[in-house]
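During the reporting period the student researcher (J.K.) took over the structure-prediction task from the postdoctoral fellow and processed the backlog of single-chain submissions. One of the processed entries is reproduced below for the supervisory committee.
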Amino acid sequence: MSAKPDPHLRMAWWNTSLAPLAKRRDQPEDLEFALSTIKTLILRESIDFLVLGEVSSDLLAHFVEALDLPDFDLLMARRPTGASTTT
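J.K. obtained the following structure tokens:
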């Protein structure tokens, strides 16, 4: 008998603070920690949907390449708010 699929959507939200508007904090050790955390959330916690806050486009591209997770798609959803609306 096969197991029934889980009808629940498993989601994680993480405000990474890697690329806030004030000052980026994307040192190599920060990136390794982020990659390890993302991998744990996806592989061990079996999340279906991951939202990352305060992360730049280039960091997202780095994560996608480094993690090599073919079952996940990347969706960028950005909207200027707060201080990011001023130049």
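The committee noted the following: The longest strand covers residues 11-15.
J.K. will present the remaining backlog at the next meeting.
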